[in-house]
Structures are given as structure tokens and as C-alpha cells.
TrEMBL record:
UniProt keyword annotation of Membrane present: yes
Domain of life, per lineage: Bacteria
Transmembrane residue ranges: 12-34
Keywords: Membrane, Transmembrane, Transmembrane helix
Keyword Acyltransferase attributed: no
Pfam name, any one: MoCoBD_2
Protein name per its UniProtKB record: Molybdopterin-dependent oxidoreductase
SUPFAM superfamilies registered for this protein in UniProt: CO dehydrogenase molybdoprotein N-domain-like, Molybdenum cofactor-binding domain
Length: 725
């Protein structure tokens, strides 16, 4: 039975038959308490003030906490409300969670630009950035409850305490549940600022750091969870686009009359890079798409061959002129001149596709007068919380209502709004009919936005004692931060460092892919360290331990990973262990144990161990799940995944020629140890993935004495490495 979208909007999302909404003021606006029955007042307050409604209380004791972040399996639907509930001292058993409206000025956390607010679930920033926001809001909500109880009982607020959704007055032996307080809630004349010192200390946490069931799991298990793909609206029609596989090529449709005459086709809509079709059913739209006769023009990608470009990149890396300097410390050239030994190597990686489970899709309904719109979408949000729709339709920002749904995978791809903007263009053409736009898997592979191909040239030097004295890292590729992130070595004590980026563009669509540039660049850095350690006859862990002497938190992860993996212990014949360290929000060291089939070139990862410092672990069980998922995704990309371009055209089309890691290929075990910490929580979604390539390549080096320097480590490349001199 098809699911139906709930009629949900900023102005009615808090309506209920009873209870109150607690509005925490911003920018000097006074706080408000509004009865949920008073819908007129609620509408007025929403319209007049930038108020933040974080929580709703009901007289039966139920509490709704609003989650401002996307939920794509990473656990934000639990981690952020847990932070709020901890400071509010709520009874977690009575808490439910809903998405907040997509309004950055109200529900955003601190952005990358000082003073800005952002609703964007990317870069492992969600828990870290919302930590102070949710703690303060929860603490203020608790203050309102205490103040109201003090007024109701006519006792000093200082004599009251709270625990698990109950206010206590020890002197009189009285207690009252939060729900029972609803009729007596009053907003204080002044809501105090609550700073870090007034909030709970880690030792006082009841919820944070404990294993709690994820709030969205029951819906996902029983099938009631709504993803954008599930949305069905009355009168909804379907849109598809043919974009080709030559990025940026302009299409010319030669049989428009035939297509328009097909059964169910409502409209043909041309784009600069595609031809769109709107039809009554998805089947009719796809049938019409298959009949399109398109002549494709040239594009900036024409003539580009991805497997031939590395020679050009290597030449660019050898030019004396610097690129854009990312980081510089000391004098690398002087260190090389005085070095006892220098090392240099090139590391390469191919394009990688996001391969998110749920195909890209969106539903948009544009009003008949074209002056407002509603959007149902699974999005990682963005700098524009209305996802580009106001600009497409030429209407004010506040006239677009976004209903965020669960995401069936994002990995950075759903922080790009191209599919939402395409849907807006189609919906405008048939307004007021709602349009569902769907990208097929073939669409997404052929016209994907990939993690960039790049080359990293590393040059290092050591002194007579074997101490690493310099590291130069030159990244060549397209995409700026997409290839040039992850090159700093904050936790390695290397006195002379230089990292630079040299750009090259080929017209291929690019996008952030889980951990962005950390995957290729940490691969290069960690492999270089092992190659140096091997030449210096030093143990790889001992070599890193010396480099981490001034970074105790990083060193603790290295020591713990070595301990739990039995690093110094003998391994089974035909196996070896490799190590890699990554800092991406969290600090983590990974160790893997592998074997290699020397006949087929297949690498098998048997075990993976991770030691992680994530700051205060808000959801430890979910952190472990994130580590496991990150390792498996990393293994898939490192051993399997590869997009190739020939004459500008993407060669892959679906999972038959873009293979992913299979169930029978996963490790026998993945063990994660979370180190205790009192530091502010850090992101964990992108820490595990970048450590995989370095750990596997380093294990391969210890096992075979051969180097793997080009991702993915396909069987062919493994066999070539094994046969190399």
C-alpha cells in the first residue's frame, strides 16, 4: 500500500490537541510559551519572530524534541535529541523525535563563516557543531520547568532538583512530573544565559555515553519510515531526464513530436545538458526516455582519457613552480639538502561513484500562480536550506516549504542540489501538479558527480638517526578542496612540511565523497611512512610512536590499536598486518590483517581493529556502527570501485560493471575501542574510511615486500605489483 506524505509545514508542524510549545528566543527576542491549542497565536509568533521551537510538552508526559539535521543512517535523529534531553533531564522513554523545519536562521548551527548559521549534514560536523546549541537549549528548557515549579509551589528555585522528567522539592517531599507541570508553566521574565560551567559534567550524564536504542529504527523496521522515494501525492506525475554520459554536452532532440505523441506523455522539457520528459506514470516516462533521439554536442570533457592523464599529472608535479600552498612549516628544501636520505613516490587514485542505496529523487508541487512551492526530499541540506528552489522559480525564500525525509544514503552526493533544481524546473511546467523526479541508477552512474581522480607526489627526508625531518606533498587534480584536503599532519612532529595543490580540469562532474580528499591523501601519507620505516628497518608502529610523541591523544589511539590487534604477536602464515592513522574530526588508528591470493590477485581483509578518540562519545554503540560502515565502504572503494573515462565518456553504467564489496568479502571481525575523553564531541562518519587504503597497502608491503600505489587495488594491479622487480 503506497505511503502518503503528511501535510507538514513550518506553521502547523507543532499543532496538537494539547500541551505547550517552548519557544526559546534568539537575538534578544523574549522567550514564549504557547498552548498548542492556541493555533492563532502559534501562527502569529512564527510569522513575527525568529523563534526557536525545540521542544513540545504534553500533559500526558510525552515530549517531542526537534532534530535539525538530516538522518541518513548516521544517527542524528538520536544523538542531537539525546544532548538536548540530557541537559533538560528528560525521561528518555517519553521522548519522540521529529524533523525541525528547514530554517537555518532558526535551527542552524555555527557555519564555517563566523556569524553564519548552517543546516548542512556534511563533513562530520553535525554532533560537533550542534553540541553547544542543543545543550544550551536543553538547559534553558530545564530552567523554565524549574522556575514554573518554584512558582507553583511558592518555593525558591534553588531548592529544586530534577531527574528523569521529574522536579523534586526535597524539603517538602513533593515531586511533579514534567507533563503535570504543563498547566502551570510560565516563562520567566528573563531567561538566563547558561554557559558551559553551569551545564552537566561528563560524570553526571545519564544519557550521553550510554547505549540507547536509536529513535528511528522502529519505523525503518516496520516500514513506516518515509523516504522521499516513498512519497505519493494526489495527482502526482513523473519526470525523468536523459543526460547522456558526456558531461557538459548540449543535446539536440530530433524527434520531439513523436515523444509528445506517446501515451501518457505530458511535456518534453529541454535543459542545457539534458532532455526532460514528464508523464502520467514512471513507466510511461521511462518508455519515452528510451525513445528519445538526441544528437550530443562536444563538451569540455571531449577527448579526455582518465587512465592516460597520470603521465600529464606526473609532469605537472615535476614543474619547479609551486601550486597553491595549503600548509607550510619550516624549510623543506633546506631539510632535503642536509638529509642523510630522501624518498619520493607518486600515489594515484581513480574516480569513485557515491553508490548511495536510494536513487536520487524529489517531489515538488508548485502553486498554480507559480508563487509558492512545497518540496519533499531526502537531502543533506546545504547553504540554502530551500535547496535552490527559490532561485529556479524566482520566488522569495519563505515561499518554499521543504519537508525533509529520511535519506537512503548520502555520502556527500545529497549535499548537491542538482536533482532538486531539475525537479523544480519540471514542476513549474505542469503546475499545480506535483512532480516526482527520479534518477535511475544508470543516470546516476553515467552523469555522476565523482570523487576526483588525483596524483600525490610525496618527497620526504630523514637525518642520520632515521628521524623524519621533512615531508613535501604535491597534489595534482581537479576540485580544489575535493583533492587538497587531508594533507596536513598536525599530529606528526615533522619540523619541515609543505603541502600544495596544482589544478587540472577536464569537465568531469565532481563532488564531495565520504572523507573528501582524506581518502587519497592519507593513503599516500601513511604508505610513505611505512616505506620509510621499512627502509630504515624500523617497526611501523614504533616509527609513528616517535612522530606522535607531542600529540598524546593521537598516540593513545596508536598504542591502543597496537594492543587490541596484537601488533607484535606472530600472525598466521600467509598473512600480515598494516597500520594507518587518520585525523578527520575524530582521531583514529586502524590495523588490518590481510592475505593475498597470488594466483588471482585478490586481497582478503580478515580482521580490522580501530582505536578511536571521538571526544565525549554521545552514542557509543552508534560510533561503533559508524566505524564498521566506514571500514566496509573504505574496503569497497579501495579494492573494487573505479569510474573510468574514455574520450570524455563514462564507461560504467550500473553495478554489473561498477562492482561493490559483497557480503562474503567482508572481514571476519571489526573491533572498535572508544577511548575515554572529556573533550567536545567530534564527528566519526569520516574517520574510518580514509584509514583503509593505507592499512591494506602497508599490510601488503609487509607481506610481499611490494608496493601498492594506485587505488583501487584491483586484482590486475595486485598481480602487476607482485611481478614487479
Amino acid at each position: 500500500m503506497p505511503k502518503t506524505a503528511t501535510q507538514y509545514s513550518r506553521r502547523n508542524f507543532l499543532k496538537t490537541s494539547g500541551g505547550v510549545v517552548l519557544f526559546i528566543g534568539a537575538s534578544g527576542i523574549l522567550p514564549y510559551l504557547v498552548s498548542c491549542r492556541d493555533t492563532r497565536r502559534m501562527k502569529e509568533e512564527f510569522a513575527r519572530h525568529p523563534i526557536t521551537a525545540w521542544v513540545q510538552f504534553s500533559e500526558d508526559g510525552q515530549i517531542i524534541i526537534y532534530n535539525p539535521a538530516a538522518e541518513m543512517g548516521q544517527g542524528s535523529m538520536t544523538s542531537l535529541p539525546v544532548i538536548f534531553a540530557e541537559e533538560m533531564d528528560a525521561d528518555w522513554a517519553r521522548v519522540s523525535v521529529e524533523f525541525s523545519p528547514q530554517e537555518a536562521e532558526i535551527y542552524g548551527s555555527e557555519g564555517w563563516t563566523p556569524g553564519s548559521k548552517l543546516m548542512m549534514t556534511v563533513g562530520s560536523r553535525t554532533t560537533h557543531s550542534y553540541w553547544p546549541v542543543m545543550r544550551k537549549a536543553g538547559a534553558q528548557a530545564r530552567y523554565v520547568l524549574l522556575s514554573s515549579a518554584a512558582g507553583h509551589w511558592e518555593v525558591p528555585l534553588s531548592e529544586l532538583t530534577t531527574s528523569e522528567g521529574v522536579v523534586y522539592h526535597e524539603k517538602s517531599g513533593r515531586k511533579i512530573e514534567y507533563g503535570q507541570l504543563v498547566p502551570f508553566l510560565k516563562m520567566p521574565e528573563v531567561l538566563p544565559e547558561i554557559d558551559e560551567a553551569q551545564m552537566k559534567k561528563p560524570g553526571e550524564f545519564r544519557l550521553i555515553g550510554k547505549v540507547l536504542p536509536r529513535t528511528e529504527i522502529p519505523e525503518k523496521v516496520n516500514g513506516t519510515a518515509l523516504f522521499a522515494q516513498d512519497i505519493r501525492l494526489p495527482g502526482m506525475v513523473y519526470g525523468v531526464l536523459e543526460r547522456g554520459n558526456l558531461h557538459g554536452s548540449r543535446p539536440t532532440l530530433t524527434n520531439e513530436a513523436e515523444i509528445v505523441g506517446m501515451d501518457g506523455v505530458l511535456k518534453v522539457v529541454p535543459f542545457d545538458y539534458a532532455i526532460g520528459v514528464i508523464a502520467q506514470t514512471l513507466e510511461q516516462a521511462l518508455s519515452a526516455k528510451r525513445k528519445l533521439r538526441i544528437e550530443w554536442g562536444p563538451s569540455p570533457a571531449s577527448g579526455f582519457h582518465s587512465q592516460e592523464v597520470f603521465e600529464t599529472y606526473a609532469s605537472m608535479a615535476g614543474q619547479p613552480e609551486r601550486g597553491r600552498v595549503i600548509t607550510e612549516a619550516g624549510d623543506v628544501q633546506q631539510a632535503i639538502k642536509t638529509a642523510a636520505r630522501t624518498y619520493s613516490a607518486d600515489f594515484k587514485n581513480d574516480y569513485v561513484y557515491h553508490a548511495q542505496m536510494e536513487p536520487l529523487n524529489a517531489v515538488i508541487r508548485v502553486a498554480e500562480d507559480l508563487q509558492s512551492a512545497e518540496v519533499w526530499v531526502g537531502s543533506q541540506q546545504g547553504p540554502d536550506t530551500k535547496l535552490g528552489v527559490p532561485g529556479i522559480l524566482g520566488i522569495p525564500h519563505e515561499k518554499v516549504e521543504v519537508h525533509l525525509q529520511y535519506l537512503g544514503g548520502g555520502f556527500g552526493r545529497r549535499s548537491m542540489n542538482d536533482f532538486v533544481e531539475e525537479c523544480a524546473v519540471l514542476a513549474r511546467e505542469v503546475a499545480p501538479l506535483p512532480v516526482k523526479l527520479i534518477w535511475t541508477r544508470e543516470d546516476d552512474v553515467a552523469y555522476g558527480a565523482f570523487r576526483p581522480l588525483s596524483l600525490q607526489r610525496l618527497t620526504a627526508s630523514v637525518d642520520a638517526r632515521g628521524t623524519l625531518t621533512s615531508l613535501s606533498h604535491c597534489v595534482v587534480g581537479d576540485g580544489g578542496n575535493l583533492v587538497a584536503s587531508g594533507v596536513t599532519n598536525t599530529h606528526y612532529d615533522i619540523p619541515n612540511q609543505l603541502a600544495e595543490w596544482r589544478g587540472a580540469s577536464h569537465g568531469i562532474r565532481l563532488k564531495h565523497w565520504r572523507a573528501v580528499g582524506h581518502g587519497p591523501n592519507k593513503f599516500a601519507i601513511e604508505c610513505m611512512l611505512d616505506e620509510i620505516a621499512r627502509d630504515q628497518q624500523a617497526d611501523p608502529v614504533a616509527f609513528r610512536r616517535k612522530l606522535m610523541a607531542k600529540s598524546p591523544r593521537a598516540l593513545a589511539t596508536l598504542d591502543k590499536a597496537a594492543e587490541i590487534s596484537g601488533w607484535g604477536e606472530p600472525v598466521a602464515e600467509g598473512r600480515a598486518k598494516g597500520v594507518a592513522f587518520v585525523e578527520h574530526g575524530s582521531l583514529g588508528t586502524g590495523v588490518c590483517e590481510i592475505s593475498v591470493d597470488r594466483n588471482t590477485g585478490d586481497i582478503r581483509v580478515h580482521h580490522f581493529w580501530i582505536a578511536l578518540d571521538a571526544g565525549i562519545p554521545v552514542q557509543p554503540d552508534n560510533i561503533r556502527a559508524q566505524m564498521e560502515g566506514g571500514i566496509l565502504m573504505g574496503m569497497s572503494s579501495v579494492l573494487k570501485e573505479q569510474i573510468t573515462i574514455v574520450d570524455g565518456r563514462v564507461q560504467q553504467s550500473n553495478f554489473h560493471d561498477y562492482p561493490l564489496l559483497r557480503m562474503q568479502e567482508i572481514p571476519d571481525s571489526i573491533e572498535t575501542v572508544i577511548l575515554p575523553s572529556g573533550e567536545r564531541p567530534e564527528g566519526v562518519g569520516e574517520t574510518a574510511t580514509p584509514m583503509v587504503a593505507g592499512a591494506i597497502a602497508n599490510a601488503f608491503l609487509r607481506l610481499t615486500g611490494k608496493r601498492l600505489r594506485h587505488m583501487p587495488f584491483t586484482p590486475q594491479r595486485v598481480l602487476e605489483a607482485l611481478s614487479s622487480s
